[in-house]
Amino acid sequence: DQQVKQNSPSLSVQEGRISILNCDYTNSMFDYFLWYKKYPAEGPTFLISISSIKDKNEDGRFTVFLNKSAKHLSLHIVPSQPGDSAVYFCAASRTSGSRLTFGEGTQLTVNP
Amino acid sequence: NAGVMQNPRHLVRRRGQEARLRCSPMKGHSHVYWYRQLPEEGLKFMVYLQKENIIDESGMPKERFSAEFPKEGPSILRIQQVVRGDSAAYFCASSLQTLSSYEQYFGPGTRLTVT
Known about the structure:
The structure holds 2 protein chains of 2 kinds.
Chain A: E1 4-5, E2 10-14, E3 19-25, E4 32-38, E5 45-51, E6 56-59, E7 62-67, E8 72-77, E9 86-93, E10 101-102, E11 106-111
Parallel strand pairs in A: 2-11
Antiparallel strand pairs in A: 1-3, 3-8, 4-5, 4-9, 6-7, 7-8, 9-10, 9-11
Chain B: E1 5-7, E2 10-13, E3 19-24, E4 31-37, E5 43-50, E6 53-56, E7 65-68, E8 75-79, E9 88-95, E10 105-106, E11 110-114
Parallel strand pairs in B: 2-11
Antiparallel strand pairs in B: 1-3, 3-8, 4-5, 4-9, 5-6, 7-8, 9-10, 9-11
């Protein structure tokens, strides 16, 4: 049972444009959501998080939007840079428990 | 502030041998998690530990796998009698866990290859 889904395995955008990565979840008990970036042969790097009491959180070029009624979140990167090329993972957790449930990841390629 | 440290980075074991993976959390972090990434898959939770306590081991295979986080020293993930299907990247993460922050910070991983 895949509780967190990233339906796009890959995304390609031009440098300077916006990248939008999407994530859906099925478990209504999730109330904390995170995005991680991962380069090959490295561990995931934390990017940004959002609590279910908010619908938007912004940090520099990264903004995460949460739509609880649709059980959907998205990560916006603007402007996109070639160094952003990596696999992006969406993750979810319950505040009462600490395990993270990850999506399958989306490979973002930003072309110069 | 040093990040999460894992060693070894690469480990090769023959079938039937034991594998020991070590993780030192970030300074000040007392919560440790282990995740496994099989080839072409996402990360899957294995176990969550605090000092001297296993909090959640619901993601651990029932046999051959064990984990500990002693009062002193790193957390250890131990795999006995390894099989080819254990070949994967094993990631450790740590967190501080305040009332408003649940971010987990990951180490570089240990890539286990079973021959």
